[in-house]
Amino acid sequence: MADKTYFDQRNYDCTIKLRQLLKELPTICNEYFLGIENRTAILTRLGYAQDLKIFFKFLCAECAEFVEIKDIRRFGYNDLCKVETFHIEMFLNYLTAFEVDGTEYSNSAKTKARKLATIKSFFKYNYNKDHIPADPASKVLSLKLHDKAIIRLEIDEVSRLLDNVENGAGLTPKQLALQTKTKKRDIAILTLFLGTGIRISELVGIDIKDLDFNVNGFKVTRKGGNQTILYFSDEVAQALDDYLTERSQNPLLDDEPALFTSLQNKRITVRAVQNLVKKYASITTPLKHITPHKLRSTYGTNLYKETNDIYVVAEVLGHKDINTTKKHYAAISDDIKRNAARKVTLRNNNNSDYS
Predict the structure, then answer these.
(1) What SS3 state is found at 220?
(2) What is the pTM of this model?
(3) Does 90 lie in the same domain as 177?
(4) Last residue of some domain: 85, 114, 139?
(5) Domain containing residue 101
(6) Of 274, 268, 295, whose CA–CA distance to 194 is shortest?
(7) Fewest Cβ atoms closer than 10 Å to its Cβ: which of 204, 287, 304, 334?
């Protein structure tokens, strides 16, 4: 359709990928994916399918009870009834380090927890549908995940980051040649991240028609497909206006709806934005691994400092769970600790008489 958005196209592409992947999975998976379609996003279902493919391949290759099943597509409900809790626990152990077609893979605790969630969902569905007499996955203990330290940019680092984009400091001659062509775009992208806390997929999906400088706002498609309006400051508006003025001088972009484009005059990709952030951030703060999501955390922390209202931060960032939002303002715990240290007085310096 003529007015297909970035997200429409992405969902269409993922739907086609999922249909192809289902042809490689046991036929018993078809009912499961139909059953969860109305309550999950297509990206979620695609991830589930990829996880289940790895799981069934493990069962048929590593577990004696299923080695006679040469093709995982032949894995039926009778076979599913034979899966025990220890098979799933063996799978989680297998995920720590394994090899496929000569390529080595490893999974973090977070990734293993996500795959376990997929398996739990799959077995729970089939148990509720009476396809299996018991749910072995329900007995598998959840993995313990350790909270990672919140990494974000300090105020002075934000200034240096934008300055480095502006003047090209630290770039190689080859990078400098490209920087002259993309400087205003790159500044606009980083300013939008740092000034609104937008997600990378949301940024890539913005079309020019989504912008409204009369209210300094733009329409954004959140996780799950919901649309909302995000507002930005005059500083962000200026960066966007500078970029759009330059963009309008390229006639090859007259029919391109995307706000941010590549040097190939097409919508910029998620990978390209990730590389852009990595390039400038590694020059500004080489000891910090800064990603687009870390820029989002930077905004969340700064917004909490300014408002002292966690619910405002949750609303702006689009978090459904307030606990997710807490991770952003938890980063200022060092500031809280330093302030607390100055609150306790051990000696009264105004009174030197201890007799």
Answers:
(1) strand
(2) 0.82
(3) no
(4) 139
(5) 6-139
(6) 295
(7) 287
